[in-house]
Structure formats: structure tokens, C-alpha cells
Amino acid sequence: LPADDDPLALDSLPADRPGPAERAERRERVARSSEALAALKPQERRALALKAEGYSYAEIQQLCGWTYTKVNRCMAEGRKAFLERFAEICQGAGGSVSAAVPRRPRA
């Protein structure tokens, strides 16, 4: 730990919050994700949004009046289309796709 009488020593401690560069990178990733989501079919977007909110396939079936097959298809095709569109957006922006792919939070 830094000495208490050295105020500059605090600058060497790791910050709990992301720095400006990381915040800018996150904003860019969110903007690209939003653009990719906007390119999806409305039913794919709805299924993915409900799943992201924590609904199960059975709950999505009930909420939307869809069959299990319809939910599964919307999820699978929506994820695939999202990832493809996201990769296109990142390539067009001159960025690295692997570095820009949204990370799934660990459970």
C-alpha cells in the first residue's frame, strides 16, 4: 500500500471503475449491438429480448402464443443473424470481430 503522506501514490492503485478508454469501448460495442439487433426480424428480436430478460422457452411460448419449435427457431436464427450482422458491422468499422463480440457474463 502507498504511504499515507504521498497523495500521488494513490494514482498507482487499480481503480474499481472502468477508465475512459474502456467506457468508450463499451459504448461503441453497445451501439454496434443495437445496430445488429435492429437488423433482426421482429419475432427474432422479441424472442431474444425475452430470453435476455430471463424468460424460459415455455414462458416465451405462453407470452407470444408460439409453439416450442417457433421459439427455438426464432432463438437460433436470431442469434445467428445477430452474430453475422455484428461481425459485418465490426469489419466495416475496421475493428477486430473477435475483440468486439459481446461477452457473455459468467454465471
Strand and helix order: HHHHH
Structural class assignment: mainly alpha
Strand content: under 5%
- Main beta sheet: none
Mean pLDDT: 84
Low-confidence stretches: none
Produce the secondary structure layout.
Elements: H1 20-38, H2 42-52, H3 57-64, H4 68-92, H5 97-100
Give an account of the 3D structure:
There is one protein chain. The protein has 107 residues and is an all-alpha fold. The chain has five helices and no strands. It has helices spanning 20-38, 42-52, 57-64, 68-92, 97-100. Helix 1 (20-38) crosses helix 4 and helix 3 (57-64) packs across helix 4. The protein is elongated. 10% of the residues are buried.
Summary tags:
5 helices, elongated, 107 residues, single chain, mainly alpha
Give the gist of this structure.
The chain has 107 residues and is mostly helical. It has helices at residues 20-38, 42-52, 57-64, 68-92, 97-100.
